[in-house]
Each structure stands twice: as C-alpha cells, then as structure tokens.
C-alpha cells in the first residue's frame, strides 16, 4: 500500500511539473497583473498547508510559535520567493514550456552555491560537474532555436529579456530562498508546514503592499477567467507533492519524478505544436539537464573518514 502511494505521488508530481508551464500559458497567459496571480497562488498554497498542519497537529503536538522568530527566519525568504514567482509567471509567457522547465533547473546550481555559503555544505566532484552541465544547458537555450533566423529581431529580444532573463533571476532568488529555508528547518528545527504557511503569508503581504503602492487600480482582473484557477490549484498542489515525495521516497526519487516531468513537457509540447519547434540545441540541453539531475542525485558528497590511530 505504501509503495503504491509513493508511486502515485511521484506520477502526480511528474504530471504537475510537466504540465504546469502549458497550463499557465493556456489559462493564465492573458492575466495582466502577475503579482495578483501570485497572491492568489499563495492563498491556495496557504490553504493546503493549513490543512496539512491541522492533520499533523492531531498526531504530533506542535511546538510553541513566536511572531518575532517567524518574521526573523521566514521574512526574507518569503520576499525572495514572492519576487521569484512573479518573474516565473512573466517568463512562462515568453519561453516555450520545455525551455522554461529546462532553464528553471539552474536553480539547483544557485541553491548549491548559497547552501555552501550559508550552511557550509560541501559537494562532490560529480555534483560540481553536474552543475556545470546545467550552466552549459542554460547557455545553449539562451540563444534561442536555430530556426529563429527569420524571426523578427524585436520578438527575439523580447524573448530574451522577458523570458530568459526573468527565469534566470528567479533561479537565483530560488537558490537564496531555498538556502535560507533550509537553514530555518535544519538549524532551527522548525516545522515544514508552519514554515510553508509563513512563506505564503509574508510573501502575499509583500506583493499586496506593492500592489497598493503602485499607481492605478489595486485589483486588475484583466485576463482572468474561471479557468485561470486551474494553474493556480495545480501550482499549489505541486508544492505539496514535492514535500510528500521527498518525505516518502527521498530527494533522489523526487529528482526522477522531475526528470519524468521534463520528458512529459517535451512530448506534450511536440504533440500540440503544428511545426517541429524543437531544435537540436533543445534536445542537447534536455539531455544535459536530465543527466545533470541524475548525477547530482546519485553522487552526493561523502565525508572522508579519518584513519583511526592505534
């Protein structure tokens, strides 16, 4: 039963990860206020995290909660995640779903950098090589497809500045937020569901404050339809699935699920497209990202044991 649940959760995570960019483009592509979209997404995540915490508290008593500690440990990563999510929503509309999912994996590189700087966690030689592969894949994708020579130059520049640059910026912010969150969970021993709720609340408050401070209407519902809630809900479920798969099967199996999601993105994108949009450099980048995720997961850093003295 437990094995079946694990497999089902991994399949659900691969499905959500692979289809999320496609759902965003299809049902939220015309939404004008990206900040408002992220606020609604954070609300959905908050509801799921609250439900999870309520179920958990029935089994295990929760530790005392402090507002001062909460703001100190979750305030900054919440802001980084909020800005990251706005950049992601922008990037999804200017890159193909497969390109977005591939470049977005560079967050692994930035997470490693900031985890090393903040937590002093070393990495194996193989993991360092895997991160270099991610950089190469990102550089390959940043230049666009080889078949884009006849595409309008302005459109190509928009794709770079509003697609590639935001997703790379989001990856950097993801690394900062992930390292700070890991520090909060591991060093300070805080509950994951509580931290998730704090990140949702503080991130939403930050974005709402920016909306209020911006000129014009505070609530801009241009582009919203009932179907816009589909990517909102699936995005919230993705966060819950990541934590569930990591808990049930470990980080390595989570990586396999994400690899399956990348392959699914490529298959669905190719099936839905009227033309062959996948250039050779996209195939190469896909292979590099998949190989990088596999190597990074399979060859973790192993501390050298000191020889025992007689």
Automatic annotation (TrEMBL):
This is CMP-sialic acid transporter 5-like. Residues 1-28 form the signal peptide. GO terms for molecular function: pyrimidine nucleotide-sugar transmembrane transporter activity. Pfam families: Nuc_sug_transp. SUPFAM superfamilies: Multidrug resistance efflux transporter EmrE. Its main location: membrane. It is found in: Membrane. Keywords: Membrane, Signal, Transmembrane, Transmembrane helix. It comes from Achlya hypogyna. It is a multi-pass membrane protein. GO terms for cellular component: Golgi membrane. InterPro entries: EmrE-like, Nuc_sug_transpt. The chain crosses the membrane at residues 128-146, 161-180, 192-212, 224-244, 256-276, 282-302.
